[in-house]
Amino acid sequence: MVWQLSLFGLFLIFSLSLLCYYLCIFRLILNKPESEKQTSNLPVSVIICAKDEAENLKEFLPEIYRQNYPDFEVVLIDDRSIDDTFDVMQDFKERFPDKTRLVKVNFNDDERLRGNKKYALTLGIKAAKHPYLLFTDADCRPASAAWIQQMAQKFSNSKQLILGYGKYQTQTGFLNKLIRFETVQTALQYVSYALKGMPYMGVGRNLAYTKELFMQNNGFYTHLDILSGDDDLFVNEVATAKNTAVCLHPDSFTISKPKQSFGDFVRQKRRHISTAQYYRLQHRLLLAWYFVSLSGFWLTAGMLLAIRYQCQIVLGIVFVRLATAWYINYKTNKRLQETGLTAWFPVLEISLILMQLYFFIINLFKKPVYWNK
Fold this sequence. Notes:
Elements: H1 2-24, E1 44-50, H2 54-65, E2 72-79, H3 85-95, E3 100-105, H4 117-127, E4 132-137, E5 140-142, H5 147-152, E6 161-163, E7 166-168, H6 174-195, E8 207-210, H7 211-216, H8 232-238, E9 244-246, E10 254-256, H9 262-273, H10 281-306, H11 311-335, H12 345-365
Parallel strand pairs: 1-2, 1-4, 2-3, 6-9, 7-10
Antiparallel strand pairs: 4-8, 5-10, 6-8
Helix pairs in contact: 1-10, 1-11, 2-3, 6-12, 9-12
């Protein structure tokens, strides 16, 4: 029948499209590992914006101050916290007076700035005394004492923006696997596209750029009204093949606390994906087609097998596609030091597709809340 042939044709298109993504783009992340760290003495300001993060700051800030780097400061921004965040910051200021710069954000009547992390970050960036800025979050810790060293050595006369990798702690349970799998898939895409010369986003848990780049592009001005996007929208706007570098040395990773409930994870990811509609058109099209191909592949394969149409061919193509994707993910997990995910690949991939569809639908009816809620 014509509709069966059409369905089979769609299946072939989706399958070939996915293989093209794997072989032309995603394989780039499998390039030889980063070389060992080299000497870098660039003056770096580590910027951390926190809202009601007193306990996380107590736990993770000592790891920042223990960095083995000759010239850095820590800019701590208290974004209108109602807990003891500022008191904790003040304590670190007293303990490390030469390495700490405090910024306290007060309430602002401008509706665009209310609950907007970009406003707080802008104040911190302006207060930073060093020209090279390295960003992380209050619930993150560096994977090593060489974090600043590894990220800073990627700066050069032409490279003004450095994309790093932000891991999540490995814990038990399916939710943790799903969170880490989603993080790896996001990194697989933005790192591979950057290596291809098409950088489109970065993550604020581990991101660096120059103060000059921020000021020359008027900071977050063009997307100040958008709730999220202090990391990915800024990168999408200013990143080019010439000014962007990637750092994937294991010592350069940061490690964050994952969400402990599905509801918290949903709220976090809804904020994150709400910015994708503001990416450059070519990036939106490439990302959208990948998701359509991935979803369409599983849907059409399932339908063809259900009606028993060309089952041997369909199963053969499914096997080839899975084997290719499995290999790419295995190598990516190994490079990013993510354990316990490869064996769960098909289940996690299908779960992620369904989850992303849910995020998209719910965002159509209700806007995400403020950045740390």
